[in-house]
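Encode chain A's predicted structure.
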Amino acid sequence: MSLQSDISSLVKSVGLELYDVSIVNENDETIYRVSVVCNELIDGKKKGVSMDACVELSHLISPLLDVTPPVSGDYRLEVGSPGIERKLSNINQFKMSIGEKVSILGTNKAKYKGILTKVEGSKIFLDADGEEVEVEFNNINKAKTYFEW
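Encoded structure for chain A:
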């Protein structure tokens, strides 16, 4: 099994879902960032990820990284939510974001905004002001969720 699939199994064991794993450098420090989401709905909205769940996951993931370091040299493990506004870079992230507001920039410079209603194969479907919009995943240059106050 790969490190990411092992981490995914640990994340699922606490009732969450792995959103992304990344290695970033900030202020001369290497950070191994594990982002998780909750798929549980409360009043039609996704439940947030608690700080306690992030701490618990850190304690579960840390021994795994001691055995299989994700990077050479020093790094810091960071477990948290990817946030309410986040990049969508793969089909699975789109699937985890169904029901949320999404902004898409197509490779043809077309812009789409709406509620992500479904993902079928490589097709992304949005409700843009009552009109269904279909976008092929391979025709997406950038995509992100967004929040309106």
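Residues 91-145 form a domain with the SH3 type barrels. fold (CATH 2.30.30.100).
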